[in-house]
Structure formats: structure tokens, C-alpha cells
Amino acid sequence: LYYIHTHLANIYQKYSSEKALTEYNKALFAAQRLKDDLCVCSTLLNIGDYFYQQDKNEHALKYYLMTEKYSDKLKSKDNTEIIKARINDIKIKMENELFKQCAEKIKKHV
After folding, report:
1. How high is the pLDDT of residue 108?
2. CB neighbour list of residue 6: distance below 8 Å, 6 or more residues apart
3. Pseudo-torsion of CA 67, 69, 74, 77, nearest 10°?
4. What pTM value is reported for the model?
5. Cα-flanking dihedrals φ and ψ of residue 36, to 5°?
């Protein structure tokens, strides 16, 4: 189910962003039920990218920070670099002080 929902989300992202987010959330739920950290991490990153493309930077940052937390379990240098690059992109888009405030608030809940 994880792969089906992820594939559907990727297709919907071109046509209907709300359906894409619904499918990403279904994929996340499936990955969590499978206890597959790599799939959870990938889906969280996809959801972060979804919000980034929607210019919803605080939401994107939340999912990127959640991805960062999961990537620590994977111990993958490539994943860590990708996630840090995404977080840095958000930092560039947001005013520095706003970024710091959002990151601190999100990290308390992640």
C-alpha cells in the first residue's frame, strides 16, 4: 500500500494538490504500520516538499525537521545531506529570526 499511495500522490501532485497530500498521508500511515523507517523518512520528506512547493514554509520546515529526526535512525549520509539542504532552503526563504522561532517551536513538538 505504501508504494501505491506514494505513486498516486506523485501523479496527483501535477493535477490536484489536495489529493496528493491525502495520498502522501496514506503512504505515511502505511509506512508507520510497516515500521519501515526509510519509507517513513521518504514520505515525510515528500510531504515537506509538497508544502515547500505550496510556499507553506512553516509546514515544510515541520516535516523536514521530522524527516531529520527519522534520518538519524537510518545513519545515511546521503539522506542527511538532502534533508539539511532542504532545511537550509527554507532558512533562505524565511527571515532568519522567523526561521529560528519556528524551528525552536517545532522541535519542542517533534
Report:
1. 84
2. 23, 24, 27, 42, 43, 46
3. 80
4. 0.90
5. -100, 100
